[in-house]
Amino acid sequence: MTAPLARVPCTIVTGFLGAGKTTLIRHVIANAKGRRLAVIVNEFGDVGIDGEILKGCGNDACPEDNVVELANGCLCCTVADEFVPALDAILARDDVEHIVIETSGLALPKPLVQAFHWPAIKGRVTVDGVIVVVDGAALAEGRVAHDLAALAQQRADDTSLTHDDPIEEVFQDQIACADLVVLNKRDLLDAAGIEKARAAIADALPHRVKVIAAADGKVDEALLLGLGIGTEDDIGNRRTLHDAEAEHDHDDFDSFVVPIAEVDDPAVLNARVRALAENFDVLRVKGFAAVAGKPLRLLVQAVGARVTYQYDRAWDAAEARKGRLVVIGLKGLDRGAVTRALAD
Predict the structure, then answer these.
(1) What is the largest CA-CA distance in the chain?
(2) Whole-number Cα distances in Å, 166 to 149, 173, 248, 252
């Protein structure tokens, strides 16, 4: 009698925009210790920036072909059309030992976890655990993301909205499904700030989970992979704000891609990106730029007015040195004005 095949463990990494999910996964790939990984990256927008960041890791633990990008919408909304075919493609590779899924920052984890009960999935993969990455610096300031006071007030004034604060609801639904919470950006916090951030997480947690403080997503892969929880078997007990809804959408958010010409000085681009949070309802900016005289791509990531940039890899000889930034913000964001602001 043939023994049943072991199911491949799958770790779901979720969290709000800019919390540091991609940085954490890059660290896991770099420290996989011989484990063969595959990654599914779910974008919210037209261009797979996060997938490009992960493909730039250059690590044998997760070769470029093992990074699958799903950029046609939120994974929890398109699970049937997008997720199952992606899994089929990955599982066709016999050497994959662990799958990591990076959800969109706007995704609700529960519908995705529930999909692991589907006949096409159930016998082949299991949810090793749901990791929620949170922005510790923002939580210490009383927000789930950086500098959203003006946005929160604008949304409170809009009486046509079903939910007063949909961003808070996304955060709460993510936390409700967590098996482990990574309190990221602790390097930006003092002891009092860390305690405030932990208290904010505790207030949102409906069940006991461990909270790990980290800087730059540097968490030992042994703490993230191999949890063996089988979250799909318990997901029915994790109550979320959207349990009564048959489906959800993201009409409160918008995203678009802005082409970026080669820049002479990264600090100038930094200032333009930082100004977007001050002048527009921009939540998140991420992407790449080419710098004159530099052979490496400039990786740009911003949460509100907090901007970081670094060189990540050399431009390939066959690719054009063309930059692009994904801008994510409130629905109705003035694309023309934002584009001009980045080009000025």
Answers:
(1) 70
(2) 14, 10, 11, 8
Nearest CA to 163 out of 105, 282, 248, 238 is that of: 248
Q: What is the CA radius of gyration of the chain?
A: 20
- Residue 109 CA to residue 133 CA, distance in Å, equals 12
What whole-number distance in Å separates Cα of residue 283 and Cα of residue 237?
32
Residue the block writes with tokens 């080009």? 343
The Cα-based distances of 11 to 25, 106, 286 in angstroms read 11, 18, 23
Token pair 């950086």 is found at 146
For the chain, the structural domain boundaries read 8-237, 253-343
- The helix or strand, by DSSP H or E, that contains position 120, with its residue range, turns out to be helix 119-122
Q: Tell me: the pLDDT tens digits for 306-341?
A: 788 888 888 888 888 888 888 877 778 888 999 999
- Mention the CATH class of domain 253-343: alpha beta
Angle CA(286)–CA(101)–CA(301) in degrees, nearest 5? 10
User: Residue 91, exposed/middle/buried by CB under 10 A (0-12, 13-18, 19+)?
Assistant: middle
Closest-CA residue to 183 (of 13, 7, 20): 20
Q: How many other C-beta atoms can be found within 10 angstroms of the C-beta atom of residue 306?
A: 19
Q: How many other C-beta atoms are found inside a 10 Å radius of the C-beta of residue 123? A: 11
- Under a CB-based contact definition with an 8 Å cutoff, are residues 154 and 281 in contact? yes
Question: In angstroms, rounded to a whole number, what is the distance separating the alpha carbons of residues 122 and 331?
Answer: 36
In 200-221, which positions are buried (b, 16+ CB within 10 angstroms) versus exposed (e)? bbeebbeeebebebbbebbbeb
User: What is the CATH number assigned to the segment(s) 8-237?
Assistant: 3.40.50.300
Torsion of the alpha carbons at 33, 39, 44 and 50, rounded to the nearest 10 = 50
DSSP helix/strand/coil, 255: strand
DSSP state of 202: H
- The single residue listed with the structure tokens 């590779």 is 93
Query: For residue 256, is pLDDT > 90?
Result: no
Tens of pLDDT, residues 275-289? 988 888 887 788 889
